[in-house]
Amino acid sequence: MDGVQESGRYVGEPDGLNRLWTPHRMAYVGGENKPKDSSQDQCPFCVIPSKSDEDGLVVARGDLAYVVLNLYPYNSGHLMIVPFEHVSMYSEISNAVMVEMGELTQRAMHALQRAMSPSGFNIGMNQGEAGGAGIAAHLHQHVVPRWIGDSNFFPIIGQTKAMPALLANTRVQLADVWE
């Protein structure tokens, strides 16, 4: 298999495991598209709404928040609900933004159910750098569709996720069923 190497040839102590190298993930690990500072002009979540839906991978827009595909998804269909306002913490948003984010989350789940028939969902927010937020300066909520058995050896052992669909195609698929 291309990209798989015997561990004993490239590490200090052989451990009997093969390695599946995924150099494309270095863009994420290395911070590609991550803002250099917390200012709005550097923030991808502030820039995305100015792009076309296709270029920004936007699935839907509300009055106070929008729904976008994750550029570095955990699973196919991994969406984020993002307020237009540049705030970092859930405690900083208004009740109106909170309600719209909740409504968009429900609509995202319905669209994902219609388009992809997941068995379940992970929904959550990582807030602050210490909380695991990749872009800590701008609040965003993840909606990750899950299927029975989607945690196979690739992500658990190989630290790799096989994605069966291109992001642009997934955006169209979800936008088409969005209500």
Overview of this protein structure:
The protein has 179 residues and is an alpha+beta fold. The protein has helices at residues 26-29, 44-47, 53-56, 95-116, 153-156, 167-177; strands at 4-6, 18-20, 58-61, 65-69, 79-83, 120-124, 141-146. It folds into 2 domains: 1-32, no CATH class; 40-177, HIT-like (HIT family, subunit A, 2-Layer Sandwich), CATH 3.30.428.10. The strands form 2 sheets. A 5-stranded antiparallel beta sheet has the order 3-4-5-7-6. The protein has a two-stranded antiparallel sheet with strand order 1-2. It is globular and about 35 Å long. It has 6 helices and 7 strands.
Which properties best describe this structure?
two-stranded antiparallel ribbon, 6 helices, 179 residues, 2 domains, alpha+beta, 7 strands, globular
Set out the fold topology:
Layout: E1 4-6, E2 18-20, H1 26-29, H2 44-47, H3 53-56, E3 58-61, E4 65-69, E5 79-83, H4 95-116, E6 120-124, E7 141-146, H5 153-156, H6 167-177
Antiparallel strand pairs: 1-2, 3-4, 4-5, 5-7, 6-7
- Give the strand content: 15-25%
Fourth CATH level, the homologous superfamily of the largest domain: HIT-like
Strand order of the largest sheet: 3-4-5-7-6
Biggest sheet descriptor = 5 strands, antiparallel
Structural class: alpha+beta
Q: What is the helical fraction, as a range of percent?
A: 25-40%
- Kindly identify the CATH topology of the largest domain: HIT family, subunit A
Oligomer state of the chains in this structure: single chain
**Architecture of the largest domain, CATH level 2?**
2-Layer Sandwich
H/E topology pattern: EEHHHEEEHEEHH
Number of domains: 2
Q: DSSP helix count?
A: 6
Low-confidence stretches: 4-8
Mean pLDDT: 82
- Give the overall shape, derived from the CA principal axes: globular
Radius of gyration: 18 Å
